[in-house]
Design brief:
about 200 residues, alpha+beta, Pnp Oxidase, Chain A, 8-stranded antiparallel beta sheet, elongated
Length: about 200
């Protein structure tokens, strides 16, 4: 991934927080059929990404133990109009661009059919999403036999992360007045504040 220095993000706590906010990822690998991409929610803990695929998905049969994979987590993104910058009125020397935030995780993958591991991953994924609800749903709310049947139709995986890198293209290289002008324009469009803060960031 091409990353100008102004947009490079390598702070592990920042990258991990980004993944927690955007757990749906693209799992990319090479199989006998060529490049393959699957979109899967994952959890990150201690340099390990965990998730599961449908047993009907041939991916788990196509990759050997410790096969290399790339996982891409995407965040907020937005078109940046030249009309939002003060320079548009001053001299007109501005062009459109697109701001976005992504995190790439490189690593090696292993699949597991062990029932207890599948249950642990499904439980953790569920709890991570349900935890803030007033009445969170728990895996144990469903009948045990039903859950056993559901688990039989998935295969768990764990990715050993060897490299974690982020590209936050968010106008960090622009002057403060330009960033403030864009923030105001996004607010006027009704853009969510949390997303706005991802596409317009202060420099590190």
């Amino acid at each position: 991934m091409y990353i100008p220095e102004a947009f490079r993000e390598e702070r592990q706590d920042v990258l991990e927080a980004f993944i927690r906010r955007h757990p749906l990822a693209a799992l990319i690998c090479t199989t006998a059929d060529g490049l393959t991409a699957n979109h899967i929610p994952m959890l990150l803990a201690e340099r390990r990404l965990r998730g599961h695929v449908a047993r009907a998905n041939s991916l788990w049969k196509s990759l050997g133990p410790d096969a290399p994979v790339l996982v891409i987590f995407g965040g907020a993104n937005h078109y940046m109009s030249p009309s939002w910058y003060p320079a548009k009125q001053e001299h007109g020397k501005v062009v459109p661009t697109w701001n976005y935030s992504v995190v790439h995780a490189h690593g090696t993958i292993r699949f597991s059919e062990v029932q207890s591991q599948k249950l642990a991953i499904v439980t953790d994924l569920t709890d991570s999403q349900e935890g803030t609800r007033q009445q969170p749903w728990r895996v144990t709310d469903a009948p045990e036999k039903y859950i056993e049947g559901a688990l039989s139709r998935i295969v768990a995986f764990e990715i050993n992360v060897t490299r974690l890198i982020g590209k936050f293209k968010a106008s960090q290289h622009r002057d403060s007045d330009e960033r403030q002008s864009v923030r105001a324009a996004l607010d006027a469009e009704g853009y969510a504040a949390a997303d706005r803060d991802e596409v317009i960031r202060e420099g590190q």
